[in-house]
Design goal:
Number of helices: 18
Strand order of the largest sheet: 2-5-8-1-9
CATH class of the largest domain: Alpha Beta
Number of domains: 2
Largest sheet: 5 strands, parallel
Strand content: 5-15%
Helix content: 40-55%
């Protein structure tokens, strides 16, 4: 993922409370990209390098005693809120609409393994020990160099529970992005012109290849993240990169193949919107005797009426039209159940003309299902 794509998808990840982990070789601009993202907006950002912290208290905060004000006796211990967290919380409370970012660099080169514990808690729960900041726009971003032969002192973080808490991103800015950066920083034109002519000298080329597929695996937590992102405005290409960083490329490719299928299941949203495209699909399933697909769709309607969600008039209209397009047997069976629900009954009473047409067809269905003697 390059810087342009990161700047596009990161706000969506932050809003969905999904923590990115940027993987990339040294000098790629991981920390500067994150810091620039926040500072250019007038937001607050903290940059921590876990490899220089000698004690968990440097990050988590120091312990102190809780003293009984009456007796002066020490009754318990507590962790003091670290100054950086207080600054972040105060900033967000004082500046509605602004965010604070916590950048955890060199996460797999932490000086002590007990520094990883707080990372677990912050990435998923937005908590640090006893301090909860889940209701504030405080974001977490992690970064690391890959565990290849090019580096020493890399911790083997193969804990699946830890890795499941992140969206893993292969961070690799383009040469053009480097040029934009150095022009903005007013590098000597001779350097810019030389790299422009011979880009092979921009950085090392013999670094070992690595794949975020070693960390991005599907699990129930990751599918929850995919669900949140599907509700966001992301382009298909950006979506693929992000999903691949959550559930892996294989699962992402299979998921998109499923989405592009002509015979994929009909969703509740399809029924309650009931566009011309969905109507055509239903007709195709009816003509192809695909009762299995239609029965599965009907079950989603029945599942909806097991909830307490409101049935809008638009959804009622579309549900009625959907049922009218069903084979008589399936239409009768579904109508028999939904008419028992007060929400659908009230909708039908408010729409007598449509109800009359539907009831007529419903009787036709009943006579077919239960023919009179």
């Amino acid at each position: 993922m390059n810087i342009t794509t990161f700047n596009k998808v990161y706000p969506i990840l932050a809003d969905a409370r999904i923590t990115p982990w940027l993987w990339g070789y040294h000098g790629k601009g991981k920390s500067e990209t994150v810091e620039t993202f926040y500072k250019s907006r007038g937001w607050m950002v903290f940059n921590f390098r876990l490899n220089v912290m000698s004690d968990v208290g440097d990050f988590l905060g120091l312990q102190d005693f809780i003293v009984n004000p009456k007796t002066g006796e020490k009754e318990a211990t507590k962790f003091c809120m670290p100054d950086w967290l207080k600054q972040a919380m105060d900033f967000c409370k004082a500046n509605p609409g602004k965010r604070a970012g916590v950048f955890l660099d060199e996460i797999n080169r932490a000086a002590r393994m007990d520094l990883i514990g707080p990372v677990f808690q912050m990435a998923l729960d937005r908590r640090l020990h006893t301090y909860d900041f889940s209701d504030l726009p405080i974001d977490i971003v992690a970064a690391a160099n890959p565990d290849t032969g090019n580096y020493s002192g890399i911790l083997s973080l193969d804990d699946k529970a830890l890795m499941s808490r992140f969206c893993h991103i292969y961070f690799n800015p383009s040469v053009d992005e480097w040029r934009d950066y150095v022009v903005n920083k007013q590098y000597e034109s001779s350097i810019i012109d030389f790299i422009g002519e011979q880009p092979a000298f921009l950085e090392e080329k013999d670094l070992e290849a690595f794949s975020i597929g070693d960390f991005a695996k599907p699990d129930r937590r990751k599918w929850g993240a995919v669900d949140r992102l599907l509700k966001k405005q992301l382009g298909r290409n950006e979506q693929f990169e992000v999903f691949a960083g959550l559930i892996g490329q294989e699962a992402t490719a299979a998921f998109y193949k499923f989405l592009d299928r002509d015979d994929k299941p009909i969703t509740l949203e399809d029924i309650f919107n009931y566009t011309a495209k969905t109507k055509t699909r239903v007709t195709k399933y009816v003509e192809g005797n695909r009762a299995d697909v239609l029965h599965n769709a009907n079950q989603k309607v029945l599942d909806f009426f097991k909830t307490n969600e409101k049935l809008t008039d638009e959804a009622g209209d579309n549900l009625m039209e959907y049922m009218e397009d069903l084979p008589l047997v399936l239409m009768f069976d579904l109508a028999h159940h939904v008419y028992k629900d007060r929400r659908f009954y009230d909708y039908a009473e408010k729409n007598p003309d449509r109800k009359a047409v539907f009831i007529k067809r419903l009787y036709e269905a009943r006579n077919k299902v239960q023919p009179t003697a």
